[in-house]
From TrEMBL:
This is 5'-nucleotidase SurE. The gene is surE. It catalyses: a ribonucleoside 5'-phosphate + H2O = a ribonucleoside + phosphate. Keywords: Cytoplasm, Hydrolase, Metal-binding, Nucleotide-binding. It comes from Thioclava indica. GO terms for cellular component: cytoplasm. The lineage of its organism: Bacteria, Pseudomonadati, Pseudomonadota, Alphaproteobacteria, Rhodobacterales. Transmembrane segments: none annotated. It is found in: Cytoplasm. Nucleotidase that shows phosphatase activity on nucleoside 5'-monophosphates. Its cofactor is a divalent metal cation.
Length: 261
């Protein structure tokens, strides 16, 4: 089995090392794990691609590369340059430091990498580790992902829905903010929404007097509706959410057509 891995926290991120362990276990002794990850952190870039400028790519070791691009760029580089047209069986993106549940998913570079793989017709899973007091104080903040990640990825690979439509299904997996022994299991759930929890900006002045704006996020432990991703994460479950890149509001189409005549 050939697996391509990437992330949005950067090539040296601890979560990528965890993902390498997960991918190596899933690929098996005769498998291949290829890494193409950003040279520096790309959190919050979503599904952006470096369409207006070139990106440098460097080989760091056997099957290990860094690019000056986004996670989506890394997937493109892996598919069409590094692997020289040899398609991977699976693309894994993560393990992100922090959750990509609820509305965070819309900003996530981790999901952007998985989404690009799906658009390219390759099965893909994004993995993220929800953080919290129990995790921050643990010797290994990625323990839940490290212990449970390979089994869940293998289960998804063997039993998940892998279609061949125009906008293929990919998966968003979030590990809860608890120790591995306290993970209650996994639940297949919808993407939630954190009410009254939005990104904003906070102004600051540099010593030079210049004014800057820092983007500031809201509380991460605000639960979403029961039975959705962040809610089950905060209850100790791994969330598994099937997603597509199709942004059409299908439930509105017929009503809008009637309204517009």
């Amino acid at each position: 089995m050939r697996i391509l891995i990437t992330n949005d926290d950067g090539i040296e991120a601890p979560g990528l090392k965890v993902l390498t362990e997960i991918a190596t276990e899933v690929a098996g002794p005769d498998g291949e794990v290829w890494t193409v990850a950003p040279a520096f952190e790309q959190s919050g870039v979503g599904h952006c691609i470096s369409y207006t400028r070139p990106m440098m790519i460097s080989k760091l070791a056997e099957r290990r590369y860094a690019t000056e691009g986004s996670p989506a760029d890394c997937v493109l580089a892996g598919l069409y340059d590094v692997l020289e047209g040899q398609r991977p069986d699976l693309v894994l993106s993560g393990v992100n430091r922090g959750n990509n549940s609820a509305d965070n998913a819309l900003y996530s570079g981790t999901l952007g990498g998985a989404m690009e793989a799906a658009l390219q017709g390759v099965p893909a899973i994004a993995l993220s580790q929800f953080l919290g007091p129990l995790v921050f104080d643990a010797p290994d903040m990625f323990e839940a992902a490290r212990v449970h990640g390979a089994a869940l990825v293998r289960r998804l690979w063997e039993n998940g829905v892998w279609d061949d439509g125009d906008y293929r299904v990919f998966y968003n997996v979030n590990f809860p903010p608890v120790l591995a022994a306290d993970v209650k299991g996994h639940k297949v759930v919808a993407q939630g929404f954190r009410k009254d929890c939005y990104f904003g900006v906070e102004p600051h002045h540099a010593p030079s007097g210049r004014r800057f704006l820092w983007v500031k996020g809201g509380p991460q432990h605000t639960p979403t509706a029961p039975g959705t991703d962040a809610a089950v994460n905060l209850d100790g479950y791994i969330s598994v959410t099937p997603m597509r890149a199709d942004l059409t509001a299908h439930d509105v189409l017929s009503d809008l057509e009637a309204r517009l005549g």
